[in-house]
Amino acid sequence: MTAMTKKKELFTTSTLVKIGVLGSLGGLLVLFEFPLPFAPNFMGVDLSDTPIMLSSMAMGPLAGVVTSFIKILVKLVLKPTSTGFIGELSNLLLSVTIALTVGWIYKVMKNRKGAIIAVASTVVTMSAVALISNAYFIYPAYVSILGYNMSDLIAMTNSLNGLVHDYWSMMFFMVVPFNVVKQTFVAFLTIILIRHVEPLLK
Fold first, then answer.
1. pTM (whole model) above 0.85
2. Domain 14-27+46-199 coded CATH 1.20.1250.20
3. What is the DSSP string of 112-149?
4. Which of 1, 44, 55, 94 is most buried, with most CB under 10 Å away?
Protein backbone atom coordinates (compact mmCIF):
# COMPACT_ATOMS: atom_id res chain seq x y z
CA MET A 1 0.00 0.00 0.00
CA THR A 2 1.41 3.39 -0.96
CA ALA A 3 1.79 6.35 1.39
CA MET A 4 -0.76 8.25 -0.70
CA THR A 5 -3.32 5.47 -0.24
CA LYS A 6 -2.75 5.45 3.51
CA LYS A 7 -3.34 9.19 3.69
CA LYS A 8 -6.56 8.88 1.72
CA GLU A 9 -7.86 6.26 4.18
CA LEU A 10 -8.37 8.97 6.78
CA PHE A 11 -11.04 10.55 4.63
CA THR A 12 -13.19 7.49 4.01
CA THR A 13 -16.84 7.89 4.92
CA SER A 14 -16.54 5.40 7.77
CA THR A 15 -13.56 7.16 9.31
CA LEU A 16 -15.13 10.60 8.99
CA VAL A 17 -18.27 9.33 10.73
CA LYS A 18 -16.17 7.97 13.61
CA ILE A 19 -14.28 11.26 13.87
CA GLY A 20 -17.57 13.16 13.84
CA VAL A 21 -19.06 11.00 16.59
CA LEU A 22 -15.99 11.36 18.80
CA GLY A 23 -15.81 15.10 18.18
CA SER A 24 -19.48 15.50 19.04
CA LEU A 25 -19.00 13.46 22.21
CA GLY A 26 -16.09 15.72 23.14
CA GLY A 27 -18.27 18.78 22.56
CA LEU A 28 -20.90 17.37 24.91
CA LEU A 29 -18.36 16.47 27.59
CA VAL A 30 -17.08 20.07 27.68
CA LEU A 31 -20.42 21.02 29.24
CA PHE A 32 -19.91 18.70 32.22
CA GLU A 33 -17.14 19.94 34.46
CA PHE A 34 -16.20 20.01 38.11
CA PRO A 35 -14.03 22.49 40.02
CA LEU A 36 -10.74 21.90 41.82
CA PRO A 37 -10.33 23.35 45.33
CA PHE A 38 -7.15 25.28 44.51
CA ALA A 39 -8.42 26.94 41.30
CA PRO A 40 -11.06 29.63 40.63
CA ASN A 41 -14.56 28.43 39.78
CA PHE A 42 -14.27 29.61 36.16
CA MET A 43 -11.69 26.84 35.66
CA GLY A 44 -13.37 23.44 35.59
CA VAL A 45 -12.09 19.96 34.88
CA ASP A 46 -13.84 18.06 32.11
CA LEU A 47 -13.12 14.84 30.25
CA SER A 48 -13.68 16.20 26.74
CA ASP A 49 -10.16 15.33 25.59
CA THR A 50 -10.73 11.62 26.16
CA PRO A 51 -12.46 11.20 22.74
CA ILE A 52 -9.61 13.24 21.21
CA MET A 53 -7.04 10.81 22.56
CA LEU A 54 -9.05 7.76 21.51
CA SER A 55 -9.42 9.19 18.00
CA SER A 56 -5.74 10.01 17.71
CA MET A 57 -4.56 6.64 19.00
CA ALA A 58 -6.95 4.58 16.89
CA MET A 59 -6.90 6.59 13.65
CA GLY A 60 -3.76 8.71 13.82
CA PRO A 61 -2.76 12.20 14.96
CA LEU A 62 -4.46 13.98 12.06
CA ALA A 63 -7.76 12.33 13.00
CA GLY A 64 -7.24 13.58 16.54
CA VAL A 65 -6.66 17.12 15.30
CA VAL A 66 -9.85 17.06 13.20
CA THR A 67 -11.73 15.64 16.18
CA SER A 68 -10.45 18.58 18.26
CA PHE A 69 -11.90 21.12 15.82
CA ILE A 70 -15.26 19.31 15.74
CA LYS A 71 -15.31 19.27 19.55
CA ILE A 72 -14.99 23.05 19.72
CA LEU A 73 -17.59 23.62 16.98
CA VAL A 74 -20.10 21.38 18.75
CA LYS A 75 -19.40 23.10 22.06
CA LEU A 76 -20.04 26.52 20.48
CA VAL A 77 -23.35 25.31 19.02
CA LEU A 78 -24.48 23.95 22.39
CA LYS A 79 -23.09 26.78 24.50
CA PRO A 80 -22.00 30.06 22.86
CA THR A 81 -18.74 31.60 23.98
CA SER A 82 -18.67 33.70 27.13
CA THR A 83 -14.98 34.58 26.77
CA GLY A 84 -14.82 36.20 23.35
CA PHE A 85 -13.56 32.86 21.96
CA ILE A 86 -10.41 33.11 24.09
CA GLY A 87 -11.36 30.09 26.18
CA GLU A 88 -12.28 28.06 23.11
CA LEU A 89 -9.01 28.94 21.40
CA SER A 90 -7.08 27.85 24.48
CA ASN A 91 -9.08 24.62 24.63
CA LEU A 92 -8.42 23.94 20.95
CA LEU A 93 -4.68 24.57 21.29
CA LEU A 94 -4.39 22.14 24.19
CA SER A 95 -6.56 19.51 22.48
CA VAL A 96 -4.41 19.66 19.34
CA THR A 97 -1.28 19.37 21.50
CA ILE A 98 -2.72 16.26 23.12
CA ALA A 99 -3.79 14.77 19.78
CA LEU A 100 -0.39 15.24 18.17
CA THR A 101 1.53 13.96 21.21
CA VAL A 102 -0.45 10.81 21.87
CA GLY A 103 -1.05 10.04 18.19
CA TRP A 104 2.57 10.34 17.11
CA ILE A 105 4.06 8.38 20.01
CA TYR A 106 1.48 5.60 19.79
CA LYS A 107 1.99 5.39 16.04
CA VAL A 108 5.71 4.76 16.63
CA MET A 109 5.20 2.44 19.63
CA LYS A 110 2.08 0.43 18.78
CA ASN A 111 1.87 -1.74 21.91
CA ARG A 112 0.67 -1.60 25.51
CA LYS A 113 3.90 -0.01 26.73
CA GLY A 114 3.70 2.53 23.92
CA ALA A 115 0.12 3.35 24.85
CA ILE A 116 1.11 4.06 28.44
CA ILE A 117 4.09 6.20 27.39
CA ALA A 118 2.00 8.08 24.82
CA VAL A 119 -0.81 8.81 27.24
CA ALA A 120 1.53 9.78 30.08
CA SER A 121 3.46 12.10 27.76
CA THR A 122 0.34 14.16 27.14
CA VAL A 123 0.34 15.23 30.79
CA VAL A 124 3.78 16.78 30.29
CA THR A 125 3.26 18.37 26.87
CA MET A 126 -0.23 19.66 27.60
CA SER A 127 0.84 21.20 30.92
CA ALA A 128 3.89 22.84 29.32
CA VAL A 129 1.84 24.32 26.47
CA ALA A 130 -0.83 25.42 28.95
CA LEU A 131 1.79 27.26 31.02
CA ILE A 132 3.24 29.09 28.01
CA SER A 133 -0.08 29.90 26.33
CA ASN A 134 -1.78 31.05 29.54
CA ALA A 135 1.18 33.16 30.66
CA TYR A 136 1.81 34.90 27.35
CA PHE A 137 -1.58 34.91 25.63
CA ILE A 138 -4.68 33.69 27.47
CA TYR A 139 -4.49 35.70 30.70
CA PRO A 140 -3.19 38.85 28.97
CA ALA A 141 -6.06 38.48 26.47
CA TYR A 142 -8.60 38.24 29.28
CA VAL A 143 -7.25 41.52 30.64
CA SER A 144 -6.88 43.45 27.37
CA ILE A 145 -9.92 42.13 25.49
CA LEU A 146 -12.45 41.32 28.21
CA GLY A 147 -11.32 43.94 30.71
CA TYR A 148 -10.51 41.56 33.55
CA ASN A 149 -8.40 42.98 36.38
CA MET A 150 -5.25 40.92 36.87
CA SER A 151 -4.92 41.96 40.52
CA ASP A 152 -8.44 40.68 41.17
CA LEU A 153 -7.65 37.37 39.47
CA ILE A 154 -4.51 36.95 41.57
CA ALA A 155 -6.38 37.86 44.76
CA MET A 156 -9.20 35.43 43.91
CA THR A 157 -6.71 32.64 43.32
CA ASN A 158 -4.77 33.50 46.49
CA SER A 159 -7.93 33.08 48.55
CA LEU A 160 -8.07 29.45 47.35
CA ASN A 161 -4.36 28.74 47.03
CA GLY A 162 -1.95 30.30 49.50
CA LEU A 163 1.03 29.60 47.24
CA VAL A 164 -0.22 32.22 44.79
CA HIS A 165 0.96 35.76 45.51
CA ASP A 166 1.79 37.21 42.08
CA TYR A 167 1.37 36.54 38.36
CA TRP A 168 4.04 33.89 37.92
CA SER A 169 3.23 32.04 41.13
CA MET A 170 -0.35 31.89 39.80
CA MET A 171 0.97 30.32 36.61
CA PHE A 172 3.20 27.76 38.35
CA PHE A 173 1.07 26.93 41.39
CA MET A 174 -2.41 27.11 39.88
CA VAL A 175 -2.35 26.84 36.08
CA VAL A 176 0.24 24.05 35.93
CA PRO A 177 -1.22 21.87 38.73
CA PHE A 178 -4.72 22.38 37.35
CA ASN A 179 -3.72 21.09 33.93
CA VAL A 180 -1.66 18.24 35.38
CA VAL A 181 -4.65 17.06 37.41
CA LYS A 182 -7.07 17.53 34.51
CA GLN A 183 -4.96 15.65 31.99
CA THR A 184 -4.14 12.89 34.50
CA PHE A 185 -7.88 12.18 34.80
CA VAL A 186 -8.17 12.10 31.00
CA ALA A 187 -5.05 9.93 30.61
CA PHE A 188 -6.24 7.41 33.19
CA LEU A 189 -9.65 7.09 31.54
CA THR A 190 -8.05 6.74 28.10
CA ILE A 191 -5.81 3.87 29.24
CA ILE A 192 -8.87 2.07 30.58
CA LEU A 193 -10.90 2.60 27.39
CA ILE A 194 -8.40 2.30 24.54
CA ARG A 195 -8.09 -1.49 24.56
CA HIS A 196 -11.86 -1.84 24.23
CA VAL A 197 -12.53 1.09 21.90
CA GLU A 198 -9.61 0.88 19.47
CA PRO A 199 -10.88 -2.23 17.60
CA LEU A 200 -14.21 -0.46 17.01
CA LEU A 201 -12.52 2.60 15.51
CA LYS A 202 -10.26 0.83 13.04
1. yes
2. no
3. HHHHHHHHHHHHHHHHHHHHHHIIIIIHHHHHHHH---
4. 55
